[in-house]
Specification:
2 domains; PurF; EC 2.4.2.14; Amidophosphoribosyltransferase; 18 helices; 22 strands; single chain; about 500 residues; Rossmann fold; Glutamine Phosphoribosylpyrophosphate, subunit 1, domain 1; about 25% strand; alpha+beta
């Protein structure tokens, strides 16, 4: 999961890109970067850290131009190395910068093709650099002996769709030609476009979430369709084309559960409204497990579970209270790499109001339970604050399977629900009772808000990988790489040497 933004304007865009990234900061807190285009030349600055820490006045002054792209990173592939901060840049053809949200599932195959067929070298472990080089190669192929026009751009994107597997929402700049945005044929990761009519002409803004458009004064135009590409040329004209053969919309269900801001609308469904619905369906499950009077108070784990907790309490007729106060200067623990860092950050992030817990049977509502680290710490905090009984409810179903499309859940043994019953998970997090949302109820929570949405990427809950290329062997390789990073790097280096030798012999 990352945040991406691209803009074409008649005015300098450095401040606009910076402000838009601030609105998308919740999508990634590991690194940030901006690349602008001025007189067919790129200016770029990127580094590890929050948006506000990466960019100083001198950096902003160097980012000249009336079009540009930005990125805030949450690492899922590669590492947290500063070299893997985005946007990425490649010199030929034309000069291209690219920012990517998602995760490729066939990047090893693509790397091999880069060496053997495309004659391109990959400098990092980032799948985004692989995607950039595939796009660059296909643009080069589509413009051999020809000038770059929208038709050739769309032909290149169609070739990218045929070669690349996985989830990807992309913004890219082609020096001196325009800004390109496209979405994978399954529409897994979100992408939308907004418009702003000014005295100097029309401006366009492409972003991961609608909140970035509205916050910057742009009118939401529409979501980019699965497989669709949009190209805004240097004259500010918008060109659109469907570039995939059989596109289908399968938005990521976890975006609605946790990742997106509640004030965003993704694929026609208000995130806030879907979370209210999750609370309603969860209340039905809770009512079936508890008798009247068992629960004294319902409390959310701030912030993303608050709408579900409010609606659950309302439907049950139980008092709602805020029992935890959040330190907003601590990052989102789900996005933090490493269990030890997450465990330490929970106590720094949340503080219990003792008076709200003392002597009460408390139902804590969270958006989801992934590794269980946060849940266990929070249950203990509630007990220490004096709660008589601590019950726990998850607005999402059990996370049973790895996510390979851009969320940091790559190994099964890190998932608390994997191989455990609800009763066993309850004991693990030390709660007195545990209630999970049903998978069908989660999907209905979204479909109820936008009936046009019927299919979802919900692999971490139901084990169905919509791209059709994720095998048990693939998941095993991911787990091996995670648990044996040194061996995985050596294996990758050996594969690279082999590919180089094969390319040299051809």
């Amino acid at each position: 999961m990352c945040g991406i933004v691209g803009v074409v304007s008649n005015n300098p865009v450095n401040q606009l890109l910076y402000d838009a990234l601030l609105l998308l900061q919740h999508r990634g807190q590991d690194a940030a970067g901006i690349a602008t285009n001025h007189s067919s030349m790129f200016s770029m600055h990127k580094a590890n850290g929050l948006v506000r820490d990466v960019f100083r006045t001198r950096n902003m002054r160097s980012l000249q131009g009336n079009s540009g792209i930005g990125h805030c990173r949450y690492p899922t592939a590669g590492s947290s190395s500063e070299e893997e901060a985005q946007p990425f840049y490649v010199n030929a053809p034309f000069g291209i910068t690219l920012a990517h949200n998602g995760n490729l599932t066939n990047q090893e195959q693509l790397k091999s093709e880069m060496f053997r067929n495309d004659r391109r070298h990959i400098n990092t472990d980032s799948d985004s650099e692989v995607l950039l080089n595939v796009l660059a190669h296909e643009i080069q192929e589509s413009t051999t002996g020809l000038a770059l026009d929208p038709d050739s751009v769309f032909k290149a994107v169609a070739a990218v769709h045929r070669r690349v597997r996985g989830a990807y929402a992309v913004v890219a700049q082609i020096a001196g030609h325009g800004l390109l945005a496209f979405r994978d044929p399954y529409g897994i990761r979100p992408l939308c476009i907004g418009i702003n009519e000014t005295d100097n002409g029309t401006e366009y803004l492409v972003a991961s979430e609608s909140v970035a458009l509205e916050g910057m004064g742009f009118r939401f135009l529409r979501d980019v369709a699965p497989g669709e590409a949009m190209f805004i040329d240097m004259d500010g004209k918008l060109h659109e084309r469907q570039c995939a053969d059989n596109p289908s919309l399968n938005p990521c269900a976890f975006e609605y559960v946790y990742l997106a801001r509640p004030d965003s609308i993704i694929d026609g469904a208000s995130v806030y409204a879907t979370r209210l619905k999750m609370g309603e369906y969860l209340a039905d499950k809770v009512r079936g497990q508890f008798k009247a009077g068992d629960i004294d108070v319902v409390m959310p784990i701030p912030d993303s579970s608050r709408p579900a907790a409010i609606q659950l309490a309302l439907k049950l007729g139980v008092e709602y209270r805020e029992g935890f106060i959040k330190n907003r200067y601590i990052g989102r623990t789900f996005l933090m790499p490493g269990q030890a860092i997450r465990r330490k950050s929970v106590r720094q992030k949340l503080n219990a109001i003792t008076a709200e817990f003392k002597g009460k049977n408390v139902l804590l509502v969270d958006d989801s339970i992934v590794r269980g680290t946060t849940s266990r710490e929070i249950v203990q905090m509630a007990r220490e604050a004096g709660a008589r009984n601590v019950y726990f409810a998850s607005a999402a179903p059990p996370v049973l399977f790895p996510n390979v499309y851009g969320i940091d859940m790559p190994t099964r043994d890190e998932l608390i629900a994997y191989g455990r019953s609800t009763e066993e998970i309850c004991r693990e997090i030390t709660a007195d009772a545990l209630v999970y949302q049903d998978v069908d109820a989660l999907k209905r929570s979204i479909s109820d808000v936008n009936p046009a949405l019927q299919n979802f990427e919900a692999s971490c809950f139901d084990g169905v990988y919509v791209t059709g290329d994720v095998t048990p062997e693939y998941l095993d390789r991911l787990e091996f790489a995670r648990h044996n990073p040194k061996a995985a790097v050596e294996e990758d280096a050996a594969r690279t040497r082999l590919n180089l030798n094969l390319a040299a012999s051809e």
